[in-house]
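Please decode residue identities from the backbone states below.
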């Protein structure tokens, strides 16, 4: 397994629209394992392949306390959306920043797992929010896009400055980032 480099906003590669996985083969399993290791190490609760500069529709997620319940979504499709929920979101690609975002409270998602088997999942609350956040990544979208222009500008400036000064990204908010 290998730790992958996580792209930081406003890196334009985060805008790439990921392509469906055609066959869940050994290379995809390796990608999943590397992404899981990268997510746990960050630490984060979710990671999309777009964030590690791989333009494939692959997501890993673990919302459990013990960090031992990995969920893998390959080619996820959100089939139904219901209700509304506002959550303080964070993102491994936007280190140190949290902001409230409104999303659907309940969704149904279908996808393939690491073995290439299809499954369907009813998700609510944080799981639902996290899936929507990661599917956004696969579509080249970042949670910052939901914020006001003013806030977007401030975040862009702050993160560009940190990269320029070669500072370590602030760990604040990372424990629940995705
Ligand atoms: Ni994210």
């Amino acid at each position: 397994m290998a730790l992958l480099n996580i792209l930081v906003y406003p890196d334009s590669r985060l805008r790439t629209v990921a392509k469906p996985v055609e066959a869940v083969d050994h290379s995809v399993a390796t990608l999943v394992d590397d992404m899981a290791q990268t997510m746990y190490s960050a630490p984060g609760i979710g990671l999309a392949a777009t964030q590690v500069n791989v333009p494939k529709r692959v997501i890993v997620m673990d919302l459990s306390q013990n960090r031992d319940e990995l969920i893998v979504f390959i080619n996820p499709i959100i089939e139904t959306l219901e209700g509304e929920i506002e959550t303080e979101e964070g993102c491994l690609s936007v280190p140190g920043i949290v902001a409230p975002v409104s999303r659907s409270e309940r969704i149904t998602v279908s996808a393939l797992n690491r073995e290439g088997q299809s499954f369907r999942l009813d998700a609510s609350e944080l799981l639902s929010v996290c899936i929507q956040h990661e599917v956004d990544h696969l579509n080249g979208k970042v949670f910052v896009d939901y914020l006001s222009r003013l806030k977007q500008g401030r975040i862009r400036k702050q993160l560009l400055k940190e990269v320029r000064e070669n500072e370590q990204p602030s760990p604040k908010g990372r424990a629940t980032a995705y």
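Observation: Residues 26-41 form the longest helix (16 residues).
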